[in-house]
Amino acid sequence: MTLPTAPHPARDPAADLQHALLSRLKLRQLALLQAIDRHRNLGRVAAEMRVSQPAITKALREAEDVFGSTLFERTPRGLIPTAAGDAVLHYVRRWLAELEATTRVLTSLEAGRSGRLRLGLTQQVPQKLLSAALDHLLHRTPRMAVLTREGTTDELVAGLLARELDCAIGRSYDGDATGLVQEAIYQQEPCLVVSAKSVKRLSRGPLDWAKLAQLDWILPPPNTPMRRTYNAIFVGAGVQPPVPMLETTSIRSMETVLRTEPNAISILARDVVAELEAAGHWGALPYLLRWSLPPVSFFTTKELDALPMVTELKSVVVRVAQGMQTRRNWGHA
Prior knowledge:
The protein is α/β, with parallel strands linked by helices. Helix content is 48%, strand content 18%. It has 13 helices and twelve strands. A five-stranded mixed β-sheet has the order 4-3-5-12-6, sandwiched between helices. A five-stranded mixed β-sheet has the order 9-8-10-7-11. It has a two-stranded antiparallel sheet with strand order 1-2. β8, α10 and β9 form a beta-alpha-beta unit. α2 packs across α3, α2 crosses α5 and α6 packs antiparallel against α13. The longest helix is centred in the first third of the chain and has 28 residues.
C-alpha cells in the first residue's frame, strides 16, 4: 500500500528574497549601487572605485542576481534605474545613511561624548528656540556631538525620512510622509517687511493687496509650504499671486536685496523681523495681517520619537515656545 505523500508547502517569494539578502548581500554591493545611481556610467564608477570596468559590470550582475531583478537599464543616456532599481535605491540610501550615522555615534562615544544628534532647522526658527535647543544639546554632561542642517521644511522632512536627520524644527508639513511625527509648538504672527528706507513710503493708505502685488516680491521657492500659503493669501484677496523677483528662504539673501531694492517686499514672522530690525536695513509695514503662518513644529520619526535625547530636546523646545507664546499673548492683551 502506497501512502500519500505530504504536499509541498507553498513557496513564499518574499521569504526567499529576504533569505537571499540576509545570506548573500554585502555592504560593498550597496555602495556600488549608490555609485551607479550617482554617475549612471560604469566607466566613471570604475574610476571612482579604482577597479576595471569589467569588474564593475560583474559586480552589478552579482548584485542584481541577489535582488532577483534587473536594477538598471542601459540607454543612450546611461544607466537608468528600473522600477525595481528605484525601489532598491530608496532603501540603499537609507541603509547607508544609517550606517554613516552609526559610525558617527560610535566615534562620538569614543571621544567621550554622550552621543550624536542631527538637527534640522528652517531659517525662520526664532533665535530663542534655536538658542534653547543648542544650549541644551551642547551643555549636557557628558557633552553631545551635534550636527545642524538648514533647509526648507520639505527638505528637512526628506532628510528625516532618509535617516539623515534625527529631528527638526520647521513649519508644519502638509504632505504625505509615512512615519513622520510632528507637533505644533509655536504660532508666529506674519508681517510685511521692506527696506527700512521704504517703510514710510509703502505705508501710505490702507492695506491693498492689488498694489502690493505690483512690488518686487521675495518669496519662498515653488512647492514649499510657505509659498503655497502666500499664494493662497493673494488668491483669497482676489489678486493674482505675483511673479517674484527672488525666490529664497535665505535670510541673508533677503537682507541683501531689501537693503538695495527700494520696492522689494516679503512676508516674514514678526518676531524674526524684530530680531533683525536692529541692523537697520529693513522694517515691518504697520499693517495687521489677519491670518496665521503655519505653526513652528517639532519633527522626528516614529522610530526615534521615544529616543531619550530626542524627547528631552522636544520638551526643552516646547517649554521655551510656550513661554514665548504666553509673553506674546500678554503683549497683545
